[in-house]
């Protein structure tokens, strides 16, 4: 009788352990992306996102992060890797597949973006309203944008004519067209290839935000950085964090809720805030290196805007309904930029005088 009881207890313990083990590993999500783990989005967005999902699922969702294309393929293949189930979650640059996201591409047009946070929030609402059909093959977690794009070059750019003939890396079809209109020679490259291209003289400079200069060590490879006056940056690029659709739909409702609670506008803003923080760090690093940082005055900025206007006109003319998309994008960017400015003003006015002065 005693032996029978022990055997029953052991059997029960084994079943309980096996059940607990299964429950603890309901699903493992493999995140795949192109940049090293210390880069901004991997380090400040994807890793915290994964930890939040693991914790809120009670350990039933496990996250494995594969940076720098460790699971194979090239950066332009990431979206299809999520679609096809090669991996479970990806982060990618949408402009790496020209023509595939024509509505979302609206946000890449020159001189419409403001800052990383406001533009990311605007992009998230814009896609939810206008462009979810472009993501029908995946479960979209969020979209976002980077901060103001600017020039990082071996030779200084202080006026429009300085760009003539320069070989400048561009990250998307729209940006390459912009470079052409500005008189440069565009060279299309995924961002991981920029450092080598600069060091080998394949390109004379690159268009990226300050944030991206950090993992690529761009401030060590070039000594000139050129930005623009006014509220609008030269350009931004659009990014997506996407999940395999079958994997998401196969989750039980409570685990779907964990994913949903960490998606959408919350995740878009998180990414925009990370980009904005590291933009400041990237610019400071270039300053400390003694690099030449140029902000073109209003008159010279206007010359760039005038040259870039043809990109916008041609983009609008290329498809029905594009003017409405552009108008909506501008309105959403203006809305979120104003809201965020009001939030900052409110925080500053609520501070004691000494704190407000130090700001």
TrEMBL record:
Gene3D superfamilies for the chain: Bacterial extracellular solute-binding protein, family 7
InterPro entries: DctP_fam, TRAP_DctP_sf
Span of the signal peptide: 1-24
Key words, A-Z: Signal
Region feature Disordered, mapped onto this chain: 337-359
CDD domains in UniProt: PBP2_TRAP_Dctp3_4 (cd13665)
Protein name as catalogued: TRAP transporter substrate-binding protein
Source organism per UniProt: Jiella pelagia
């Amino acid at each position: 009788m005693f032996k029978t009881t022990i055997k029953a207890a052991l059997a029960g313990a084994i079943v309980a352990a096996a059940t607990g083990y299964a429950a603890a590993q309901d699903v493992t999500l493999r995140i795949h992306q192109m940049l090293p783990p210390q880069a901004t989005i991997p380090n400040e967005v994807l890793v915290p996102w994964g930890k939040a999902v693991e914790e809120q699922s009670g350990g039933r969702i496990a996250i494995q992060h594969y940076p720098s294309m460790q699971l194979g393929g090239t950066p332009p293949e990431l979206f299809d890797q999520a679609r096809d189930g090669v991996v479970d979650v990806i982060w990618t640059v949408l402009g790496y597949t020209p023509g595939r996201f024509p509505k979302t591409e609206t946000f890449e047009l020159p001189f419409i973006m403001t800052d990383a946070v406001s533009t990311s929030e605007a992009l998230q609402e814009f896609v939810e309203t206008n462009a979810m059909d472009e993501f029908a093959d995946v479960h979209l977690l969020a979209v976002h944008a980077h901060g103001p794009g600017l020039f990082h070059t071996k030779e200084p750019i202080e006026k429009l004519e300085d760009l003539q003939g320069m070989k400048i890396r561009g990250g998307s079809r729209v940006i390459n067209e912009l470079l052409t209109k500005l008189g440069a020679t565009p060279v299309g490259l995924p961002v991981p290839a920029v450092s080598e291209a600069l060091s080998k003289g394949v390109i004379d400079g690159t268009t990226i935000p300050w944030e991206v200069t950090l993992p690529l060590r761009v401030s060590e490879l070039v000594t000139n950085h050129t930005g623009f006056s006014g509220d609008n940056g030269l350009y931004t690029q659009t990014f997506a964090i996407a999940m395999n659709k079958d994997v998401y739909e196969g989750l039980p409702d409570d685990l779907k809720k964990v994913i949903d609670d960490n998606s959408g506008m919350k995740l878009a803003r998180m990414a925009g805030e990370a980009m904005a923080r590291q933009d400041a760090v990237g610019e400071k690093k270039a300053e400390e290196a003694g690099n030449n940082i140029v902000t073109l005055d209003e008159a010279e900025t206007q010359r760039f805007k005038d040259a870039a206007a043809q990109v916008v006109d041609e983009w609008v003319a290329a498809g029905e309904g594009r003017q409405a998309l552009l108008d909506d994008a501008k309105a959403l960017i203006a809305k979120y930029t104003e809201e965020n400015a009001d939030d900052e003003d409110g925080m500053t006015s609520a501070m004691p005088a000494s704190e407000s002065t130090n700001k």
